[in-house]
Design goal:
The protein has 5 helices and 34 strands. The mean pLDDT is 96. Bound molecules: fe (ii) ion.
Length: 498
């Protein structure tokens, strides 16, 4: 079926040579609907008939000429959704209609400066912990209470979209005044959504729980010693895990409204373990080696211990990226997993003794891990991590770990082909934890096209079992999710109604 061009958003970006506005990060401005079935030219292999649900990936796709220097995390949120049912697929792509997106569309130019520029360059107050940024709602997506919740890493308002039709519902009503960070966490077993936020004012962090009915059930302070830059949280069946890591804004400069990140190797990493509906006085604090962790993989309870897996950065404050264009050295360095060296790592917190034991699980540089979401917060066996392109915010392949045996398998895409964050898709009726697929959008810079690929999770080394060519090459991005149709009331005709 031919793709339908729904709308083209007017861009004002001038020709430029910014490293994160070209190649796999070249922005696009077309919003599409497209459906796919076996036998069509766009489908290579067969669309699996044993999956039912939707893959949603967001990313930063700048629309307007930036005010000053551009950081890819400033870009406008652009959501790419592809749903599967009965061996058919339906793709829809839409910008998130944030308040900032609409105001800039009306003005025909950027109104907010980004991360790399001083706040006074923004033409009006903004959002987030830094207070003058545009809430691009571009970092992360989860499907909760039947709808996408799109979030911003600096703590924004949270926007809701329908995962199938991409109808937009604006900001989420229960979001507190300090906003919500990216990496809200869905407990599939209960339908609860766990979230946190952070800010420049005491108590500097809050944590909350939203029920499956989309009502705020719990919201408590997590008091910290000062402003911090947490990016992710984790949970077990009974506890939530927040963190206080020794990478934060320089306090003296912050008084002058300058946001300069510094790592303090002399300080410990601290973890707050709080019962899911606990109060601040219930928090158990654990200390660990200094690091910064961008993303956790999973956590679970085992005897007296809480086990937490994530990616331990060996160099949280990387030296400048030597080949970067003038003025972008620091930005390029902080986008380079090859310089920050995140490694798969395990922390064990003993709830009886208060001790922490740490263990490196793999010495390769990996990040952006995914698991079978049914096992989130529970003891699990399989992890799927992205292999970063060493000096770029790009992924060139996937590693599967068997955390019980220590075995691992990998699949690399080849020169000029870059994956998205790649969630696990359970097969309908699956019994095994790894009975399903790994799904990703791949951008092929050489062929100038993007495709949605599916790998057999039990044999990722065999390469894709299906490739679906999208209407055009999409911009690289950040986070994604898979939601089961059975969990979110996927409409019967959702795939065919493009
Ligand atoms: Fe993230």
């Amino acid at each position: 079926m031919p793709a339908e061009l729904v709308e083209t958003i007017k861009t004002t970006i001038q020709p430029n040579d910014h490293p994160y506005m070209k190649g796999a990060w070249r922005p696009t401005f077309n919003e599409w609907n497209a459906t796919f079935a076996d036998g069509e030219a766009e489908v290579i292999g067969e669309i699996p008939k044993d999956i039912d649900g939707v893959y949603v990936r967001t990313g930063e796709n700048q629309v307007h000429e930036p005010i000053g220097r551009y950081h890819p995390f400033d870009g406008d949120g652009f959501v790419h959704s592809i749903s599967f049912k009965d061996g058919k697929a339906s793709y829809r792509s839409r910008f998130v209609r944030t308040k900032g997106f609409e105001a800039e569309r009306e003005a025909g130019r950027s109104l907010w400066a980004g991360l790399m520029e001083p706040p006074h360059k923004s033409t009006r107050p903004g959002w987030g912990a830094q207070e003058w940024l545009k809430d691009s709602s571009s970092t992360d997506v989860v499907v909760h209470a039947g709808k996408i919740l799109s979030t911003f890493y600096q703590c924004g308002e949270g926007y809701r979209l329908d995962p199938f039709t991409m109808e937009q519902f604006g900001t989420e009503g229960w979001v507190p005044i300090d906003g919500i960070s990216a990496h809200t966490k869905l407990d599939e077993a209960t339908g609860e959504l766990l979230f946190f936020n952070y800010s420049k004012h005491a108590p500097y962090m809050h944590y909350g729980v939203v029920g499956p009915d989309n009502k705020l059930k719990h919201y408590v302070p997590i008091p910290l010693p000062g402003p911090r830059l947490p990016h992710d949280m984790c949970f077990t069946e009974n506890y939530s895990i927040l963190n206080d890591m020794p990478l934060f804004w320089n306090e003296e400069l912050l008084e002058r409204n300058i946001h300069a990140v510094e790592f303090h190797p002399e300080m410990k990493t601290r973890f707050a373990v709080i019962p899911r509906y606990g109060q601040p006085e219930d928090i158990r604090w654990f200390e660990a080696e200094p690091t910064y962790t961008l993303h956790w993989l999973n956590a679970y309870e085992e005897g007296d211990e809480i086990v937490l897996d994530g990616y331990f950065q060996e160099e949280p404050q990387p030296k400048s990226y030597p080949d970067a264009p003038d003025g972008l050295e620091r930005m390029m360095a902080y986008l380079s997993q090859g310089l920050m060296k995140p490694k798969l790592h395990r922390w064990r917190f003993n709830m009886k003794t208060g001790e922490t034991v740490e263990q490196r699980l793999d010495d390769r540089i990996l990040e952006f891990g995914m698991i079978n979401q049914k096992y989130a917060g529970r003891k699990y066996r399989y992890a799927y991590s992205a292999i970063p392109e060493p000096y770029w915010f790009l992924f060139k392949g996937i590693v599967k770990h068997d955390l019980e045996t220590g075995e691992s398998w990998s699949y690399e895409l080849g020169e000029g082909r870059y994956a998205s964050e790649s969630p696990f898709v359970p097969r309908i009726g699956a019994k095994d934890e790894d009975d399903g697929y790994i799904i990703s959008y791949v951008s092929d810079v050489n062929a100038d096209r993007s495709e949605c690929i599916l790998l057999d999770a039990k044999d990722i080394e065999a390469g894709p079992v299906c490739r679906i060519i999208l209407p055009e090459r999409i911009c690289s991005g950040t986070h994604s999710t898979w939601a089961n149709g059975s969990d979110i009331g996927m409409p019967e005709n959702s795939v065919l109604a493009a």
